[in-house]
Amino acid sequence: MTYIDWPDELNTGIGIIDEQHKRIVQYINELHAARMQDDMHLVGEVLGELVDYTISHFAFEESLMEKAGYPFLDPHKKVHSLFVERVGAFVERHKAGEDVGEELLYMLHKWLFNHIRNEDGDYAKVVKQSMGDIRKEGGWLSRTLHRFFG
């Protein structure tokens, strides 16, 4: 598995979401680097950060979809939930001393690209339409960003 370079085709057109997706790619690349150093402790640290950040991203993304009235919010949440469970299983295997690095990197790469292209691509138009209204509501977007990302 090689480092991931962000392809523009993955941009949703929602700047904050694209930046968060790029940060997730950075974590995946850090995970790859830790694995190449054969540093299981560092793999665990990066994996924990990746999981925490991704959960926050999912919550933020879901709040945007909810605010926009995206009709497929519940199935999208289910996809997110299944992903968190799947990664959680990797975390547990790692904690048990198993080298899950290569399998995990492959899964993350494949899942992220498919998810952004398909599920995230589906909600982007609805959310972008509502973004103008969100900005007019006296800082809802700023408050939500602060709540999830400090």
Explain this structure to me?
This protein has 150 residues and is an all-alpha fold. The chain has a single domain (15-149), classed as Up-down Bundle (Four Helix Bundle (Hemerythrin (Met), subunit A)), CATH 1.20.120.50. The protein contains 5 helices and no strands. Helix 1 (15-36) runs antiparallel to helix 4, helix 2 (40-68) runs parallel beside helix 4 and helix 2 packs antiparallel against helix 5 (140-149). The longest helix is centred in the last third of the chain and has 36 residues, at 101-136. The N and C termini lie far apart (32 Å). The model has no long low-confidence stretch (mean pLDDT 87).
Topology:
Blueprint: H1 15-36, H2 40-68, H3 73-95, H4 101-136, H5 140-149
Helix pairs in contact: 1-2, 1-4, 2-3, 2-4, 2-5
Note the run of SSEs as H and E.
Answer: HHHHH
Secondary-structure-based class equals: mainly alpha
Distance between the termini: 32 Å
User: What is the CATH class?
Assistant: Mainly Alpha
Please state the CA-atom Rg, rounded to the nearest Å: 16 Å
Number of helices: 5
The low-confidence runs, each spanning 5 or more residues with pLDDT under 50, are: none
Mean pLDDT: 87
What's the structural domain tally?
Answer: 1
Helix proportion = over 70%
CATH architecture: Up-down Bundle
| CATH fold-type name | Four Helix Bundle (Hemerythrin (Met), subunit A)
Roughly what fraction of the amino acids lie in strands? Answer: under 5%
Within CATH, the superfamily carries the name Hemerythrin-like
How many strands appear in the DSSP assignment?
A: 0
The major beta sheet can be summarized as: none
What coarse outline follows from CA principal-axis ratios?
elongated
